Amino acid sequence: MRRLLSRLKTIFFTFMAKRKITSYKPPLHVNRKSTFNNKTYLGKNVHFNGMWVGGCGKVEIGDNFHSGRECLMMTQNHNYEGETIPYDSNYICKDILIEDNVWIGNRVIILGGVTIGEGAIIQAGSVVVKDIPKYAIAGGHPAVVFSSRNIEHYLELKTAGRFH
Fold first, then answer.
1. What are the helix (H) ranges across the chain?
2. Helix %, strand %, coil % of the chain (to 5)
3. Which residues are known catalytic residues?
4. Residue 164 in domain
5. Which residue(s) pair with 104 in the sheet?
């Protein structure tokens, strides 16, 4: 019964996401409540476990993406250099690009203007404020690269089509 209820929730959350997302390539899996802006573009085999994508910037996510729970992608910020303090009524919009085969842990925050390279892993609880290179493992506040994948092993799995 529990498994059936979980499957029904996934079907519902995926249906709701498809109504808002600009484009996606099946399969798409939305396992927990997620919210997207109308400038969200998804590759194939994308998995969300609770995501909020907001703001006026574009978000592009490549194939085989997996997110943890309670993640945020914020593509908009207030203009603090405007006509009033602390900020004015204008927004600054910045895009987010996430390449193929990226995995982000629970409660990761990704700010606009960031690119996360292919195969990167972002540690749970991290705040990504600058680009993360391919195959990197990064974490912290702000997220910094502290390790990397075994690139040879990664490429072998990729060539063999071994995706989860």
1. 2-20, 151-159
2. 15, 35, 50
3. 78
4. no
5. 67, 122
